[in-house]
Design brief:
The chain has 28 helices and 18 strands. It has about 625 residues and is α/β, with parallel strands linked by helices. The protein has a 6-stranded antiparallel β-sheet with strand order 2-3-1-8-7-9. A 5-stranded antiparallel β-sheet has the order 4-5-6-10-11, covered by helices on one side. It has a 5-stranded parallel β-sheet with strand order 15-13-12-17-18, sandwiched between helices. β2 and β3 form a beta hairpin. The relative contact order is 0.13.
Length: about 625
């Protein structure tokens, strides 16, 4: 497990040593082997001392290290660290060097000669970077809590983010906000340059919607995807002892099968499963894969989870963000992986966004190939994914409205009936009983509008729409959640299906390779069929048994849950959180518990209370 932290005292900033020691203490679960180095007005935790010219703190894994070492005249063996490659690349190419890096990384590099801090985050945001920047200081770390919990930093809790959490789907409203007003996230594929008097941020990479890749046959597409996927897995298994997160879905199953095929020894597989009597499809697929593949069964049933409550409850006491409530099952499996001595786990949870098509893709088929072809695709979507009680004609009508009714008429209807933002705002205020003054204070209406704009169709082509989906803030916030939860348990989450080269390839190929005959992730499924049983590669049922694990915990730990929430409910009530007496209302009890636990942790860490603004 790794991370980063550091600071730059700008004009008349606070003393470096005290702040650095606090950063180090709060980052200890990620950076236990780091040493603190200070130089004049800067300080950072580093894994190796570096040179007199540069200092680097980094959470990094480079996938093109062999190519970079060759270009820089360095040995490509294990004696050359990724940190050394980054420093030499900056020395050789200057700030544009980051455009040459491929891998998962976030880092801050201090240039002593320029008296400048150069910071960057990887292309899709696998590795997080949080920072506080004002006229006096620039402080940064791998988690917002690290800074928000420091008494010497005057951080306040964002009331807007509390409402985002109550609404839930506003988690992805943007790529910058955190639960602390003064702490921000550096967006993926961004650089931040900070010196004594100024700072500049810019995007160093964007997906190219104009790039096209064509092959003569379907087999050629499959072979190319397979080669890239195998390389992505191999890059992420180069260092450390690992396992796989196996949900039974096609994404994690393909990653697991490739990892087994590349390795010589069986891999431990971590899965949350229900008892056989439950007839849960995810669990049945997991059991099938454990039988067919060279995997070590480390699955966890709901009936066994109480064995991990001591470690789990300890992790929940210092939960990284309230939104991590959705990671309950992952917490349990990460704890088990750490117990087995794993340094990392491979995950396939992120395959849907870059390797599938948006649900609106029949509209693009209508534009390119005609309405008949588009409605044929709608039929296959209905046949493969819809419940039999869902009317096919109604689904046809839904798509036909979007295909045939001009946009100007749809906009005119909105003006007459009121915008969807207004309707959503009124509905949320009523459903969650959010205080009207809180709704106004937090700009809830504007945040709803922003999130709706994030999901709105963008661009005149299917590829432009796909770029918008991949670039949506939702992917970055999900990756940040996985990073926090894994780090709190002592392991690292690695994501082969978000390899930059694989994502660029999936975007560049014709849309029919990614979605056809109602199949999402069409090309990935064809590749998966080479490794997996048919009922896994081509499964259509979508189950999520994570709620069963939460329900079991809430039942077993009712005294802890109710005691924690009832002692603090008055603080969060105006934001729509309630402690209901209905024992079946587990969802509301759980999300309120996670918020109260987070507030308690931050307040305790600061030691002097904290203000909500």
């Amino acid at each position: 497990m790794s991370g980063l932290y550091g600071l730059f005292s700008r004009r008349g900033g606070r003393p470096t040593d005290g702040l650095l020691n606090q950063l180090s203490g709060h980052s200890g679960h990620r950076t236990a082997n780091y040493i603190n180095l200070t130089r004049n007005r800067i300080g950072m935790g580093v894994a190796e001392s570096g040179t007199g010219e540069f200092l680097l703190t980094a959470d990094i894994r480079l996938d093109n290290r062999t190519e970079l070492c060759h270009q820089l005249g360095l040995n490509a063996d294990t004696t050359t660290s990724d940190a050394r490659i980054v420093i030499n690349a900056y020395r050789q190419w200057g700030e544009p060097f980051v455009e040459r890096l491929i891998g998962d990384f976030s880092f801050a590099l201090w240039d002593e000669h320029r008296q400048t801090m150069i910071c960057a985050r990887d292309h899709l945001g696998v590795k997080p970077f949080y920072y506080l920047l004002d006229g006096q200081q620039f402080v940064f770390a791998s988690e917002a809590n690290i800074m928000g919990g420091m008494p010497s930093l005057e951080c306040t809790i964002s009331s807007a983010r509390l409402v985002d959490y109550r609404v839930d789907w506003l988690e992805s409203v943007d790529k910058r906000c955190t639960f602390f007003n003064e702490v921000h996230r550096l967006p993926p594929a961004s650089m931040l340059i900070v010196d004594e008097n100024s700072h500049q941020e810019h995007t160093y990479w964007e997906l190219d919607a104009d790039r096209e890749v064509y092959f003569p046959s379907d087999d050629d597409y499959q072979n190319a995807f397979n080669e890239l996927a195998r390389n992505a897995v191999q890059c992420r298994t180069r260092t450390g002892k690992g396992g796989v997160m196996l949900s039974g879905g096609v994404d994690s199953s393909l990653v697991s099968a490739i990892a087994i095929d590349l390795g010589e020894a069986p891999l431990p597989a971590y899965s949350g499963v229900l008892p056989k009597a439950a007839k849960d499809n995810d669990s049945e697929c997991v059991r099938l894969l454990l039988e067919k593949l060279n995997l070590i069964d480390r699955s966890l049933e709901t009936t066994e989870q109480s064995n991990y409550y001591p470690q789990l409850n300890k992790s929940l006491e210092r939960i990284g963000e309230p939104f991590d409530a959705s990671m309950f099952q992952s917490y349990l499996l990460y704890i088990r992986a750490a117990e087995d001595g794993c340094d990392y786990v491979l995950d396939g949870v992120d395959g849907d966004i870059p390797h599938s098509l948006p649900s609106s893709y029949p509209l693009w088929i209508a534009k390119q190939d005609g309405i008949v072809d588009a409605l044929t695709e709608v039929y296959w979507i209905w046949r493969r994914w819809c419940d039999r009680d869902q009317s096919l004609p109604a689904l046809y009508l839904q798509y036909l409205k979007s295909m045939l009714i001009p946009r100007v008429l749809r906009e005119a209807k909105q003006k007459i009936m009121g915008t969807s933002t207004d309707r959503e705002y009124r509905q949320l205020m009523r459903d969650f009983d959010i205080s009207p003054s809180i709704g106004i204070k937090t700009g809830l209406r504007a945040r709803i509008a922003q999130e709706q704009a994030n999901y709105a169709a963008q661009g005149s082509s299917l590829k432009e729409q796909r770029v918008a989906h991949i670039s949506h803030p939702g992917l970055a916030v999900a990756l940040e959640r996985y990073d926090r939860a894994a780090a709190s348990c002592g392991v690292e989450a690695r994501h082969p299906l978000l390899d930059k080269r694989l994502v660029e390839f999936s975007l560049a190929i014709p849309g029919k390779q990614s979605g056809s005959q109602g199949w999402s992730k069409y090309l990935m499924r064809r590749v998966a069929a080479q490794y997996l049983p048919h009922q896994v590669a081509w499964r259509t049922s979508v189950d999520d048994n994570g709620g069963d694990f939460i329900l079991r915990w809430a039942t077993d730990q009712q005294n802890l849950l109710r005691g924690k929430v009832e002692s603090s409910i008055d603080k969060v009530g105006p934001y729509g959180f309630r402690m209901t007496k209905d024992s079946e209302d587990v969802s509301n009890q759980w999300i309120t518990f996670c918020l109260v636990s987070w507030l308690s942790y931050v307040t305790k860490a600061r030691g002097n209370g904290i203000i909500v603004r």
